[in-house]
What does this fold into?
Amino acid sequence: EVQLVQSGAEVKKPGESLKISCKGSGYSFTSYWIGWVRQMPGKGLEWMGIIYPGDSDTRYSPSFQGQVTISADKSISTAYLQWSSLKASDTAMYYCARLNPPGSAFDIWGQGTMVTVSS
Amino acid sequence: EIVLTQSPGTLSLSPGERATLSCRASQSVSSSYLAWYQQKPGQAPRLLIYGASSRATGIPDRFSGSGSGTDFTLTISRLEPEDFAVYYCQQYGSSPKVTFGPGTKVDIK
It folds into this structure.
């Protein structure tokens, strides 16, 4: 079964760092782009960036460039999203998703990781 | 930068009715790279349509997509109870690489 499994919910304080993960299985992890999508409470979907695990080529949304870092470890089929200094406004659900070449749509989604930043 | 606009914001319909959702782009989008997603409360989004008109695996044929250029449509021919959800369109290719529309909520009248 093709799936993406994300790490569990996090509760952090402003200024703390965080790295969440997304592990792929059931397919060739290095052959598909993986994207990260933010969904703030009660709001819509926002694309953050994509990474190609085969060579770690990464593209960021202008809205998130410099705010987060996307990386991948192809040896363990895992992509990451990290923050160096969290803000309360980073409170959101974060999804990873596989970008499938026919139509370049996100065909497989992780279950989401809820990040809560509160003092 | 391509901006996607969806209308209406909310669509109130009854089961069995036809739903027509619109997605308009600020610049021309390749039809190959326009997708639609469904999201229910507490769930991750699910891909419905890719390439503007191709149904994803396992998607019932009551869902159909059409359009080209800057105007795209998602049609649900007869609403089932499980279809009441939020629907997003998404484009790929033009800077920024990926854009989502703001969503249309289909709720029960």
